[in-house]
């Protein structure tokens, strides 16, 4: 048996998938064969969610029925809301979301039905309810009354409505929609793999999503979009950005929003999100953040040859949309629920328990000393 160690599973191909394809050599990412930047240019997030789950873009009738089905499920039970309301105001919203998804599972009488139809229905219910949960939690922390979902509004418009009581100009909604499309799916990233590991034990989809939320929270993964904005606020002045970055690199600190395990040349999602971020800056007078972005990007490229990843433009774009920083990773969850749940269903369709090996480097086998010799 081979004892080669693949630290972090780097370069290891674990299974087949038909959901998305990351081709590092050409910097391309496709969902079901479609380049993600083309989807972001012309589709709604609801169309892309449908594509990720069902393998094809919907026609008009399919989209109408999908929207009716999901929009009508946006309300969240009183019991889940009351559990969220009992959480400390200062807990991270990702902790709240992890707890809330557990509650959705506990409330679902079909929790352990792992048929593809049952899991598809649960995935759509989470897609519908997660924005309501994130918006409710945001408002309760501000001491504001909750705003009920509006079934006449699309996914992104409804989220703004539930957070702020109004829908912003369509250009802002479009920038948010683009971020939802770009965040939706990314093959065997850490949180998706986590979901597949849990699923492989034949546990339920809510357990898989709860575990995936825990994996996404970390700053090396989804938590980076929050960390980027904290970093930018700390730097504050674009003129100080290059020196700040040089200091970080000299201290061997990781700079959030840069680097990627698979893309070494560039992250294919970045140019599209950078355009959306620039649009947000033009709409809100936030050009300072774009100037800082460009300083940091240029300095990192010249010092280390490392490119930004999607979290680098997404963090400041969400800031300019008016979201509080701790909401950024929960917003990522609202999108990635599509990819996670598609992978849960795919894993179950050809399941094998995920159980790797380890190379033991501890004490060699020895006898337990007799109690009289130990005590
Ligand atoms: N800042 C400074 N140096 C870096 C960075 C960075 N962000 N990323 C990689 N490096 C350097 C690293 O120090 C190492 O240098 P050396 O060989 O001289 O020691 C080399 O590049 C390889 O780094 P690694 O950490 O071994 O590479 P990895 O493939 O394990 O890392 C990563 C991938 C995403 C964990 C890493 O790039 C990182 O920590 N980035 C910052 C956090 C971040 O932005 N995460 C979001 C990832 S993408 C979106 C998502 O998944 O949510």
Automatic annotation (TrEMBL):
Family (UniProt): Belongs to the citrate synthase family.
Associated pathway: Carbohydrate metabolism; tricarboxylic acid cycle; isocitrate from oxaloacetate: step 1/2
Active site per database record: 260, 311
InterPro entries, sorted: 2-MeCitrate/Citrate_synth_II, Citrate_synth-like_lrg_a-sub, Citrate_synth-like_sm_a-sub, Citrate_synthase, Citrate_synthase_AS, Citrate_synthase_bac-typ, Citrate_synthase_sf
Catalytic function, reaction form: oxaloacetate + acetyl-CoA + H2O = citrate + CoA + H(+)
Transmembrane parts of this sequence: none
KW Transferase (keyword) present: yes
GO cellular component, one term: cytosol
Annotated keywords: Acyltransferase, Transferase, Tricarboxylic acid cycle
Organism of this sequence: Natronoglycomyces albus
MF GO annotations: citrate synthase activity
Protein name: Citrate synthase
One GO process term, biological-process aspect: carbohydrate metabolic process
